[in-house]
Amino acid sequence: MEKISRVFLKKAECSLDLGDGSERGPYVNQDYILQKMGKLHRGISLMYTYYPTDEGWPVRASVAFPQETPSGAWNYPYEDYFPYRGGVEGLRDDEPFKFMKDIRSHGQDVVLTMTINPLLSDEYIIAVAKDLRPYGRVLLRINHECTGTWFCFSRRASYQQVADFFVRCCKIFHKYSPNVKLIICAGMWEKSTGKIEMEETFLDAFREADYWSGDQYISLHWGWPGDVALKDGKTFSSYSLEGVYEKAKNTWKRLCEITGQKKPMLLSELNADGDVSSPYGQAEKIKSFMELLQNDSERWLSGFTMYQFRDDGRLGLEITDPNNSEVGIEQPLLSVYRQKLHEPFFSRSFVTGEQISLPCKIRWGNADDSEGIEIPLHFSKNPHFAELYFDSPDLIDMNLVMELGGHWFYKKPGVKCVDLMGLFFEKPLDGPADLSLRIFAPPADGMNRPENGDPYEAPDGEWMESVYTEIKSLPKIRIETEPVV
Questions:
Q1: Residue 306's closest CA among 281, 277, 282, 276?
Q2: pLDDT for residue 429
Q3: How far apart are CA 421 and CA 449, in angstroms?
Q4: 119 and 52 in contact (C-beta within 8 Å)?
Q5: Which of 331, 295, 291, 341 lies closest to 310 in space, CA to CA?
Q6: SS3 per-residue string spanning the chain
Q7: C-alpha–C-alpha distance, residues 5 and 309, integer Å
Q8: What is the pLDDT of residues 24-83, one digit of tens each?
Q9: Cα distances (Å, whole numbers) of residue 346 to 42, 304, 361, 365, 466
Q10: Residue 179, phi-psi category: left (phi > 0), alpha (psi -120 to 50), beta (remainder)
Q11: How far is 469 from 124, CA to CA, in rounded Å?
């Protein structure tokens, strides 16, 4: 391992984020997800609600206002997501912050959805903006699907008020936490009119946002969990795959036209519901959608969020075991999506830089823009053992994410050995091979910090965008191509 080069982590042609926890299922830790997927996502999406002046707050709505027969997450005074306990309440050690730290320590960005009372004054929003300052690049989606009728915020305010509130939030976050990028998730293109739903009302919001977005399901059982989707039922929908694709693509094109801007387009929730399409059809529809993206030369979509990892219904790569919510039951979609996740089109790229010597500093910026080190490794044939040993004090304390042959690995502080054989179990070598081990160092506690002062109040600066780590030595690698005995 005598040759060491600097390596740069760059954006995928189409980034993949993963929903992890919502009103439909629990958060699953990133170690489990990495072991299941063999690869890190660009970002992990969390969903929370913020109605701090409401009666019943901060108790979850379904607990504060129990219903004999649950009738959906939005049929409460405020949305039945988990309450956001930061902001004016100031609880930064509980949800969602412990999950945000888990996400960032594993080399992924936080993608945070929040439904917020649009009648709140600035002080409530400023408090949230300050909460998010130490978490590097955060993609924040406020009051999604805001041209719909189902969310509580749309029953408290007019659509114009909701649009104006989003613009106000953009200005506040850009001032108090410039590391946070705002996502507008509003109406989408309608074939009958050639326009976006309520485009005049939300035009300023589209112009102010950092990202454009829409939620699009190929099929959805929106009556879950109140009923079962049956052939003669009326609480589910299914759409043509080509129609969904056309709608999403033309949304971006129309937004470019009416705003005079060209911003990255996301699909912040995408799936086909296994309740409607069956688990087999669900997997086939998502595979076909991803292939449409791969074969489209226009490259119009910046990324999408697979909704979600584990779901109490059938909108997940796993479904929750009803006997134990900590156990997931893998669905056919998981293996299909995992295969696509590893394909080059959906993978972040690496650019090898100049050769360097140790010690050296490496920079963690975000999941699309970071610097690490690259070490060439030679394998004479498929190994029986491939392990990294971190036996010096400086290495033991490090928090690292590593990539080898398209497979990602994680080492938290205190871990002294990382087994690389997961790669070779999945993709055994059929002869000699040269592979590059790439090492990056995201923050161990998931937080960026200034040299001096409180990160929630410190002046803006590079600390909000970058974390630097000094690499003094390399791990020892054990590669053996035969069993011990």
A1: 282
A2: 97
A3: 35
A4: no
A5: 331
A6: CCCCEEEEEECCCCEEEEECCECCECCCCHHHHHHHHCCCCCEEEEEEEECCCCCCCCCCHHHHCCCCCCCCCCCCCCCCCEECCCCCCCCCCCCCHHHHHHHHHCCCEEEEEEEECCCCCHHHHHHHHHHCCCCCCEEEEECCCCCCCCCCHHHHCCHHHHHHHHHHHHHHHHHHCCCEEEEEECCCEECCCCEECCCCCCHHHHHHCCEEEEEEEEEECCCCCCCCCCCCCCCCEECCHHHHHHHHHHHHHHHHHHHCCCCCEEEEEEEECHHHHHHHHHHHHHHHHHHHHHHCCCCCCCEEEECCCEECCCCCCEEEECCEEEEEEECHHHHHHHHHHCCHHHCCEEEEEEECCCCEEEEECECCEEEEEEEEEEECCCCCEEEEECCCHHHHCCCEEEEECCEEEEECCCCCEEECHHHHHHCCCCCCEEEEEEEECCCCCCCCCCCCCCCCCCCCCHHHCCEEEEECCCCEEEEECCCCC
A7: 35
A8: 999 999 999 999 999 999 999 999 999 999 999 999 999 999 988 777 778 899 999 999
A9: 10, 10, 28, 20, 24
A10: alpha
A11: 35
Instruction: Please count the other Cβ atoms lying within 10 Å of the Cβ belonging to residue 97.
Output: 21
CA distances 347 to 33, 183, 245, 294, 341, Å, are 17, 22, 21, 12, 7
Tokens of 139: 């993609």
State how far the Cα of 436 lies from the Cα of 161, in Å rounded to an integer.
53
Residues 122-142 as b/e (b if ≥16 CB within 10 A, e otherwise) read eebbbbbbbbbbbbbbbbbbb
Q: pLDDT averaged over consecutive 10-residue blocks of the chain (485 residues)?
A: 89 98 94 98 98 95 88 86 95 94 98 98 98 98 96 95 98 98 97 96 98 96 91 93 97 98 97 97 98 98 97 97 96 98 98 96 97 97 97 94 98 98 96 97 97 93 96 96 94
Token digits of residue 363? 């920079």
Tell which residue, 243, 241, 228, 325, has the closest CA to residue 282: 241
Residue type, 448: N
User: Are 361 and 468 contacting, i.e. CB atoms less than 8 angstroms apart?
Assistant: yes
Q: C-alpha distances in angstroms, 441 versus 302, 468, 481?
A: 25, 8, 29
In this prediction, residue 386 carries a pLDDT of 97
Please state, in angstroms and rounded to a whole number, the distance separating the CA atoms of residues 395 and 236: 53
Q: Quick one: how far is CA 329 from the chain centroid? A: 21
Which residue is associated with the tokens 């320590």?
105
Please report, for residues 250, 412, 422, the alpha-carbon distance to residue 385 in angstroms, rounded to integers and kept in the order given. 50, 21, 10
